[in-house]
Design brief:
The protein has about 575 residues and is α/β, with parallel strands linked by helices. The protein folds into three domains: about 80 residues, Thrombin, subunit H, CATH 2.40.10; about 280 residues, 3-Layer(aba) Sandwich (Rossmann fold), CATH 3.40.50.300; about 180 residues, no CATH class. The chain is about 35% helix and about 20% strand. It has 19 helices and 23 strands. The strands form five sheets. It has a ten-stranded mixed sheet, with helices on both faces. Strands 1, 2, 3, 4, 5, 6 and 7 form a seven-stranded antiparallel sheet that branches. A hairpin with a 3-residue loop joins strand 4 and strand 5. The longest helix is centred in the C-terminal third of the chain and has 20 residues. It is elongated, with a radius of gyration of 32 Å.
Length: about 575
């Protein structure tokens, strides 16, 4: 079939075809071996004309193994032949205890392709392709292959799928039929589904989470949120030390208001807002204040006289001074208590009034924006996502993560979050909050990377974007996980039909790629520039792929592979609408 090598470059060889030997089958994209007395080089056929074949070097066979990349080139007198059946497993993997079946090779009569489980699932992965190209089917098939592998049942695996359209429920809900020790858990933003309701404890939200939830856009808003969190944690307590701190905070706030430049009526309104927001036995509108030979209710002390002053200023000063203990300013609650979103709103109101932010023209816009946005959430249907009932008990981050992966007292290997009933902005916040929680959890483990999480982000371009998080918070959680998560066992798997909209930093940290058919010029140009180890040949291959077939390359594969994936069973709910049957009378 092949005659001789007529040209060699750093990565390419030109080989003439043997005269009078017609090709009986298509050899395009097939693998070729250059063999001389010293070495055995693997190449891939990239171009063919009537007399010449262009072959790109891929790697070298050495001691019954294959090494990607070439330093040495074959000699000009090396023999050239197609790869034989015994050599194919060296580049396509073998069915061993530590490998997983991925698909078959359409070039080699559906020869099975295996990948190292460690190389595939301990590194960030990206799955790109047009809608209808087979991305969801491919992801479902790969995971089903993992659970159907009898050589390494993944009892301790945790796959978390953030499902933008609720596609994967049908593919994995019966995973226990494969093995009764496998469990599937389903959280949903749709209250009418059979899954568990998606709920996030508000007391586990950090300042950064609140900034994202309330769409903060100014650095001046961060200190407001920091104070809000400190206040709400104090207000949630009922012990004696916490009550003393509350009295101090209220007394100091009232004193500050009494001596600011507002009118008496505005002062009175602000003070009553504080008393309605946070009440204690010593500070309530009906609290009795003892004077010399007489008593007044606290609300009566703020009546305005004819001169526009409070009628009982002296009595108020005497009463308030009893609670102004400066040591309380450094109080930190020892035992944390749960609190609601409504309590968080009250704490924000308190923070705004006591710092005089609403009366400061420079800070007014920043403060009122947070106030309005939090109030709108508290009074919307979205408030239900933060209505986490613990019957008064405080649940820690570790226990909350454990509850996510627990199903009837057993581990759930697949946890599916259905986000189809909320808008993109809230879905992005939820994915960021959960990602931050998982990162803190895995980073805090005593033994690093002992509980790995594989997170799949369906429609990742909706979440993993170039946001202003870096400007506002100093980091983007997706980018931080992309850079650092691997060493803690937190692995991202991005599924997207628009890679051009994804964060370049995150994509640059992906090690494995499955590229299904793509046609948009901007997306194709983007992956050419951004993806490591990609070349024009791979890009050209993906343009002609059939649905369910992809080009796979990266650390998990010895060489770039064209892989045909069997249909998942059962399939995800991602099929196109059957117009014919819908239109039929």
């Amino acid at each position: 079939m092949f005659d001789k090598i007529v040209y060699l470059s750093d990565n390419m060889a030109h080989v003439t075809l043997a005269p009078n030997v017609p090709l009986s089958f298509n050899i395009m994209n097939m693998h070729v071996v250059f063999q001389d007395t010293e070495k055995c080089i693997l190449g891939e056929i990239e171009d063919i004309d009537e007399k010449l074949v262009k072959i790109r070097f891929l790697g070298e066979f050495n001691n019954n193994s294959f090494i990607s990349g070439t330093i040495r080139k074959p000699l000009l007198n090396a023999t050239v032949r197609l790869i034989n059946k015994e050599e194919i497993p060296y580049i396509m993997g073998e069915n061993t205890n530590e490998n997983v079946f991925v698909g078959t090779s359409p070039l080699y009569n559906n020869f099975p392709i295996f990948s190292s489980i460690n190389d595939l699932f301990s590194n960030h992965m990206a799955i790109f392709g047009n809608t209808g190209s087979g991305k969801s089917y491919g992801v479902a098939r790969i995971l089903q292959n993992v659970f159907e592998n009898p050589k390494l049942p993944p009892y301790k695996a945790i796959f978390m799928i953030f499902d933008a359209y609720g596609e994967y429920h049908t593919a994995f809900k019966d995973i226990n039929k494969i093995n009764p020790n496998f469990n599937f858990k389903f959280f949903s933003t749709n209250e009418e589904t059979d899954g568990e309701k998606l709920r996030i404890p508000p007391w586990l939200l950090t300042v950064d989470d609140l900034a994202l939830l309330l769409r903060a856009d100014s650095h001046a808003q961060i200190p407001i949120l920091e104070k809000t969190l400190r206040l709400v944690r104090i207000f949630a307590q009922e012990d004696q030390a916490s009550l003393a701190c509350k009295d101090y905070l209220i007394a100091r706030a009232i004193v500050n208001i009494m001596y600011n430049n507002q009118t008496a009526m505005n002062k009175r309104n602000d003070i009553f807002t504080i008393l309605n927001t946070c009440q204690t036995p010593n500070f309530g509108v009906e609290t009795v204040v003892n004077g010399v030979g007489y008593t007044r209710k606290l609300r009566e002390c703020f009546e305005i006289d004819l001169n526009g002053n409070f009628a009982e200023t002296v009595l108020l000063n005497t009463y308030l001074s009893k609670f102004l203990n400066a040591e309380a300013d450094n109080y930190v609650p020892q035992n944390l208590k749960p609190y609601s979103l409504q309590q968080l709103e009250n704490a924000l109101d308190f923070a705004l009034i006591t710092d005089g932010i609403l009366n400061n023209p420079k800070s007014y816009g920043d403060g009122i924006t947070l106030k309005v946005r939090l109030h709108s959430i508290v009074n919307s249907e979205n408030a239900r996502f933060f209505d986490y009932n613990t019957k008064g008990a405080y649940i820690t981050l570790d226990k909350y993560i454990a509850s996510l992966v627990s199903s009837n007292g057993r581990r759930a290997q697949i946890v599916n979050f259905n986000l189809e009933d909320i808008d993109d902005s809230l879905a992005k916040v939820f994915t960021k909050v959960y990602s931050r929680m998982l990162f803190e959890f895995t980073k805090g483990l005593e033994n690093r990377a002992t509980i790995p999480f594989n997170v799949f982000l369906e429609e990742a371009h909706r979440y993993v974007q170039n946001d202003n998080d870096v400007y506002l918070l100093g980091y983007n959680i997706f980018e931080r996980i992309a850079k650092e998560g691997r060493k803690y066992g937190l692995i991202f798997n991005l599924i997207s039909q628009r890679p051009v909209e994804l964060s370049e930093t995150v994509i640059s940290q992906c090690t494995n790629f499955f590229i299904f058919k793509m046609s948009h010029p901007r997306d194709i140009d983007f992956i050419k520039k951004m993806l490591p180890n990609i070349n024009n040949e791979i890009v050209e291959k993906q343009k002609s792929l059939q649905p369910g077939t992809c080009v796979a390359f990266g650390r998990a594969f010895k060489v770039p592979q064209i892989i045909k994936m069997p249909l998942p069973n059962p399939t995800p709910s991602s099929q196109s609408c059957d117009i014919v049957n819908r239109w039929r009378a």
